[in-house]
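User: Structure tokens for this complex, please. No commentary.
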Amino acid sequence: MKRRDFLKSTAVFISGAAVSLSSLELLDPQEVLAANPDLRWGFLVDTYKCVGFCVKACKIENDIPLEADVTRTWVERYVITKDGKVNMDSPKGALNGYTSKLIDQNESGMKKIPDADITQAFFVPKLCNQCSNPVCVQVCPVGATYQTADGVVLVDRTWCIGCGYCIMGCPYGVRFFHPVANVADKCTFCYHRISKGDNTACAQACPFGARRVGNLRDPNDPVAKAVLDQRIGVLRDEYGTKPNAYYIGLSKEVH
Amino acid sequence: MKRHVWRPLFVVIGLVIFILLVRLWYVPDDFGVQERGYTYGYHRLSNEQEWKNYPAKYRDRGYCADCHVENSESISMSPHAVIPCQNCHGPALNHPDDPKGLSIDRSRDLCLRCHSKLIMPSSGRNDIPGIDPAKHNVGIECSECHNPHNPSLEDM
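Assistant:
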């Protein structure tokens, strides 16, 4: 074999091998549509506007016992002092809001911070992020929890065996054991309301518009617009869960 | 093959058939891989509809304004216009049929959720007029002096 022929056939072989089998496969239009439907629910939280008012409405709307120490959404208070210390509390998940300057430090009691020492203080509401890669769904051994085509993660109450894997799996801690239904429970973005065109109970209860639900695939949706053109952040990006709750004014102290 | 090999094999085959039959009877027809694929969409399809049918407790704001025209107009003039009716009046459910009347939360604690003065420099909460609950008319309900639909005392 001549040197020229050898180089020629090598080039042909390499270019042939570079075309992978998958690129020759015809795309199923249904599959493409399912991967990219025209509705994908997302959530926008403006932490500057939050005062911690929504939790009670969520609990009533979704039949979560008010006094039980579980909640689908909660509000955290962060108070950062001049020495850089971060003080955080969320008594009862902020079911009754924040009426006192004292910071609840659990067993170490209530902490009083002098007004002059405070550099930053703000509220951060938390809820299910309806992740694009929901960890909680992957770990379910029985197919009781799943994601709908429009991106909401739900729990089938008749199918859940209550093993608690999903509760442990969620990096955001939004899942809990429902004390009455005795199954895993979580925020559904008020699926019964948004699928009828209504607002979520929490977003409706917020007087200041700190919470909004919207369609991330609609370029004219206020939530989608804000996600595109504002400085937003998501929680625990490093986990690779691709959360769909976006926060305006998120700071590094919040996880 | 010998009989002692076949006999346990029959038992195993019988068990497998039995389990498959139970599975056929127990697993609903619509259980399977849905739009989000096997990893995220393996579930009973009709459960999505069940969640959509979950009864709502809170109504939209227009629902209240349809009948209570006077009250919804009076609050719309005040700084409290941003507060949804049901935050204080409770969820409307199927009012006026069921329940006939709503119980209003007039508690001091409800007002304090916004109007207890907190130092929150990086939050809009800082800008809401506030009082020190330990000093401002301790023990009486706010609504004895302030009308929640028109809270400024100067306007009253």
